[in-house]
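C-alpha cells for chain A. Residues wanted.
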C-alpha cells in the first residue's frame, strides 16, 4: 500500500475522542512596545535619515539651478544696461552738437535762407489778441479796439519804446 492508504487505514485505529486544550491568557509584564533587536529599532531612523538627506540634496540642487538662472538674467541685464549707456552717450553727444548756437545760425543761413538783420532798424509789433468768450479761439482785434485799449505798441530796436 501506499503511504496515504496506510495512514487512512490506520486512522480509524488511532481515532481518539477530541480532547480540550487547556489555553490560558498570558499577560506581558511591561506595557511598552514589543522589544525588538537593535537592527529593527534603527530601521525607522535610517529611513527617516535617508529621506532627510534626499530632501537636503534636492534643495541644494534646486538652489543651484535658481542661482544659475539668476546669474544668466543678471548678465543679460548688464549687457542691456551697457548698450543703453552707450546709446545715451551717443545721444548726449548729438544733443550737444545740435544745441551749438553757431551751428544753428549757420544752418539757418545756408539751408533756410535767413539773413541777419540790423537791430537798429528792426521794428517789432506786439499785439494783444483777445480770446472769444465762448469758443476759446483767438480772434483778430479790430483797429478801433486797439486804439481804445492801447493794446498795440510799436517797438523799435531791441526793447526800446518810441
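Reply:
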Amino acid at each position: 500500500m501506499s503511504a496515504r492508504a496506510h495512514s487512512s487505514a490506520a486512522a480509524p485505529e488511532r481515532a481518539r475522542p477530541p480532547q480540550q486544550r487547556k489555553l490560558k491568557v498570558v499577560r506581558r509584564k511591561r506595557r511598552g512596545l514589543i522589544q525588538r533587536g537593535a537592527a529593527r529599532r534603527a530601521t525607522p531612523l535610517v529611513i527617516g535619515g535617508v529621506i532627510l538627506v534626499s530632501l537636503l540634496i534636492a534643495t541644494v540642487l534646486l538652489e543651484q539651478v535658481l542661482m544659475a538662472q539668476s546669474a544668466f538674467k543678471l548678465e543679460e541685464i548688464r549687457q542691456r544696461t551697457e548698450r543703453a549707456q552707450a546709446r545715451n552717450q551717443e545721444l548726449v553727444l548729438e544733443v550737444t552738437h545740435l544745441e551749438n548756437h553757431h551751428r544753428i545760425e549757420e544752418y539757418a543761413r545756408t539751408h533756410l535762407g535767413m539773413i541777419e538783420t540790423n537791430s537798429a532798424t528792426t521794428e517789432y509789433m506786439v499785439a494783444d489778441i483777445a480770446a472769444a468768450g465762448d469758443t476759446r479761439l483767438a480772434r483778430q482785434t479790430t483797429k478801433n479796439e486797439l486804439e481804445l485799449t492801447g493794446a498795440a505798441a510799436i517797438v523799435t530796436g531791441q526793447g526800446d519804446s518810441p
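The beta strands are 123-126, 153-156. The longest strand covers residues 123-126.
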